[in-house]
Write the structure tokens for this entry.
Amino acid sequence: RFWRLHKFQRQHMDPEHLTTNNTQYCNLMMKARNMTKGICKPVNTFIHEPKEIVDAVCQEANITCKNGQPNCHQSSLPLNLTHCRQTGASKYPNCQYRASYLTKQIIVACEGKVYVPVHFDAYV
Ligand code: CPA
């Protein structure tokens, strides 16, 4: 169970880059964060906010996740995001992505005794 919160940090957290207008961001980051091993992960969202802000989303009211579980929570405020989507021409192992920069509310699933995000469900 413990590894899942580290997986969320690896796949979705990037507080260092507050604004990004770099077309290579997704190509570099999807690889650097090990999401292009075995397959190209088709979509992934990075959150450019401090860990405390993202962890605090778990304290918002429970809502239903896409998979029907009740452990999702929506941020009250919009957060800075980069959404990475695999291009049509991208072929493993040469994973290619298009980046979209967004400011949207996020929905995450949370788990654990220290109740923290383990899954990125959506942005709205
Ligand atoms: P991840 O957060 O690693 O939706 C599939 C993946 O695509 C998902 O990966 C997030 C990503 N995505 C994204 N941005 C989007 C849309 C999708 O980044 N806009 O998921 C981690 C694990 O969580 C998966 O193995 C499935 C699992 N999971 C799904 N619902 C859950 C729940 N309610 N509670 C706990 N785990 C859940």
